[in-house]
Hints:
The chain is built from seven helices and two strands, in the order H-H-H-H-H-E-E-H-H. It is mainly alpha-helical. Strands 1-2 form a two-stranded antiparallel sheet. Helix 2 crosses helix 6 (115-135), helix 3 packs across helix 6 (115-135) and helix 4 crosses helix 5 (81-93).
Amino acid sequence: MADDRPDAPEIPPPDRTLGELGLWQFAPYLMNRIMGRYNAEMHEALKERNLSTAKMRTLAILSVVPGLTINELAVYAVTEQSTMSRTLDAMEKAGLVRRQGRAEDARVREIFLTEMGQDEFGRVWPLMHAQYQEMFAGIASEERNAFVGTLQKVLKNVRQHKI
């Protein structure tokens, strides 16, 4: 399938069809299935705590990388900036996060968990960890580590941002 745009790079035809390759050998399909199931399970567990997936991701990310800007946080959380903005507004109103001006440029707002936000993440982390453990049940740590290493390389190949 040729792209008729004059600036489009030439894409060589694939050596096999998707039918020949098969869905069970097509990594994007498998990754979507895995993350779809993980997100559905987390969504159900989070409903009881009045948290959304976006809020859970925000708590998790800020617990590890505090002081991100909204744009950086949106990249880490794999969400649209507008969704992140609404999420942060709700979380700030609930007392879970605070925003402050960056020391060298007060126009840039950095986001941090409050003590209440840290406590909330402490309650959510066991759920996240249990889902993670379930996902890797029966898989040796060496195999899991190799898999995660491969995912890191794939992410480096496809990412648009340095984070």
